[in-house]
């Protein structure tokens, strides 16, 4: 199904809105305990329980409005449902905290498999949005695969050694900033392998 154009502000709200709501709700409930059906739950668990249907709703709305979902969005939603659900069901926040690790490992692994086949799955996902050669896509894909693997290790280190507060701040702001900075620092690749310029250098940066 071909994609439809929607208001970019609405698209951004649907993509990051649930994360913002999760963060705000966590700040309001982090020091409280809730008793439901004779079982005590931390605020983090209840916020996670609310985050799951919110993510499902926002993803379905994105699909309805744009006519498509990326594989990344689908995989992310599935892991949120599975590991968020396990955290709520077992009353154990560790499962939800593991989710970013698994997401980044899956992405790194998928990109790595493509590289072994001489392909850039990143190029397929982004539908050739950047005006760079195939070799440029391969360089960018190698870097992104390594970056995702590093993020998976970092998430493991944070949630296993730091407080829930620290992990929530890291998940909400740290990971988002890291991804943004990664792409901001890839200007050299975009320039070197640009298909819009003549005589681009083909060295691997």
Question: What labels describe this entry?
Answer:
single chain; 205 residues; 2 domains; two-stranded antiparallel sheet; 8 helices; 2 strands; 73% helix
Describe the structure.
The chain has 205 residues and is mostly helical. It folds into 2 domains: 90 residues; 103 residues, no CATH class. It has 8 helices and 2 strands, in the order αββααααααα. Strands 1-2 form a two-stranded antiparallel ribbon. Strand 1 and strand 2 form a beta hairpin. The two termini are 37 Å apart. The C terminus is likely disordered.
How do the strands and helices of this protein lay out in sequence?
Layout (H helix, E strand, L loop, with lengths): L7 H22 L3 E4 L2 E4 H24 L4 H20 L3 H23 L4 H5 L8 H28 L2 H21 L2 H6 L13
Antiparallel strand pairs: 1-2
Please state the overall shape, judged from the principal axes of the Cα atoms. globular
Strand content: under 5%
What profile does the largest beta sheet have?
A: 2 strands, antiparallel
**Biggest β-sheet: strands ordered side by side in the sheet:** 1-2
Order of SSEs? HEEHHHHHHH
Helix content: over 70%
Low-confidence stretches: 198-205
Radius of gyration: 19 Å
Concise structural overview:
With 205 residues, the protein is mainly alpha-helical. Helix content is 73%, strand content 4%. The protein folds into 2 domains: 1-90; 93-195, no CATH class.
């Amino acid at each position: 199904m071909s994609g439809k154009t929607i208001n970019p502000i609405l698209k951004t709200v649907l993509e990051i809105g649930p994360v913002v709501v999760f963060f705000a709700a966590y700040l309001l409930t982090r020091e409280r305990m809730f008793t439901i059906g004779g079982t005590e739950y931390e605020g983090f668990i209840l916020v996670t329980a609310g985050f799951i249907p919110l993510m499902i709703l926002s993803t379905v709305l994105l699909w309805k409005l744009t006519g498509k979902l990326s594989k990344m969005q689908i995989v992310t939603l599935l892991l949120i449902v599975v590991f968020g659900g396990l955290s709520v069901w077992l009353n154990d926040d560790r499962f939800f905290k593991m989710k970013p690790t698994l997401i980044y490992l899956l992405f790194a692994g998928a990109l790595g498999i493509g590289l072994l086949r001489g392909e850039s799955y990143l190029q397929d996902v982004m539908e050739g949005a950047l005006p760079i050669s195939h070799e440029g896509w391969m360089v960018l894909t190698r870097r992104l695969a390594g970056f995702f693997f590093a993020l998976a290790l970092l998430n493991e280190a944070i949630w296993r050694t730091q407080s829930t507060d620290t992990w929530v701040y890291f998940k909400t702001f740290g990971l988002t900033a890291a991804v943004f900075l990664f792409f901001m620092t890839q200007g050299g690749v975009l320039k070197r392998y640009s298909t819009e310029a003549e005589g681009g250098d083909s060295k691997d940066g």
